[in-house]
Amino acid sequence: MTKNSTSMATSKWTGMVQVDDTALAVTDTGGPGIPVVYLNGQFATQGYWRRVVAELGTGWRHITYDERARGRKSRRSADYSFQAAVRDVDAVLGARGVDRALLVGWSYGAVVAAHWAGRNPERALGAVLVDGAFPYDWLDEAMEQRIRKLFRRLGWFMPLLRPTGLAPRMTAEQQADSNIELGRLSRESELGPVLDGITVPVRYVVASGTSFGSRGDEQERIRAGLDAVTARNANIHVSAKVAGNHGAILRKEFRAVAGAVREVAALGPR
């Protein structure tokens, strides 16, 4: 570890990390503990992780950030693609002098974490995937139209929330495109091989019930796609199936998420 990275590890820091044509708002608690990088839901913010961070406590180095055009400070970009989101993990780690980290991702962030861990086995201490990264073919033409209709309906309301950081500074079309891209990436033929190739410890925390925009038992059928994954890859297990639904899981089930982090840390390489 260089002198500069040692300074980064011991000092608390909040600021902007430049990447491509944008900048991301990052918070790094510093300290000598295992670096844990938290990857947000698709349009969520780093504040969602505060209960998990508090539950784990000061023995860990917590790094949170807001994705492009999310939160109150992260800036707009010409690129809101999934691949950009994966590259941003590297940008944040590089800016903070972190060589190896444990990733925790919720929803969209779980898919980002799975891809990053699969591509970087020598840098990933492991991953916790919170109610996301389920390989299932849920996107068809009818669903795509449903997604576009939903975001068009929300289009008038979102600008009112942007100053608070509760809504992304993205157009309704950009948000719909991002959600549709996630659906394509979540297909068994796309996500299944990514999960099968992971060689570091991975633990899932699985919610119950619905998520935003889902109907009936739609979400539970999507979660069932995980069974084949755990049967094929011995590195991947379900740490907990919790009562909280998708939207409330970080608020109500933070202890289960923290428990999964501890479990992965105990298994990961040193």
Automatic annotation (TrEMBL):
Descriptive protein name: Alpha/beta hydrolase
UniProt-recorded Gene Ontology molecular function terms: hydrolase activity
Swiss-Prot/TrEMBL keywords: Hydrolase
UniProt xrefs under InterPro entries: AB_hydrolase_1, AB_hydrolase_fold, AB_hydrolase_sf
Lineage: Bacteria, Bacillati, Actinomycetota, Actinomycetes, Kitasatosporales
AB hydrolase-1 domain segment(s): 35-145
Source species: Streptomyces carpinensis
Pfam families: Abhydrolase_1
Highest taxon listed in the record's lineage: Bacteria
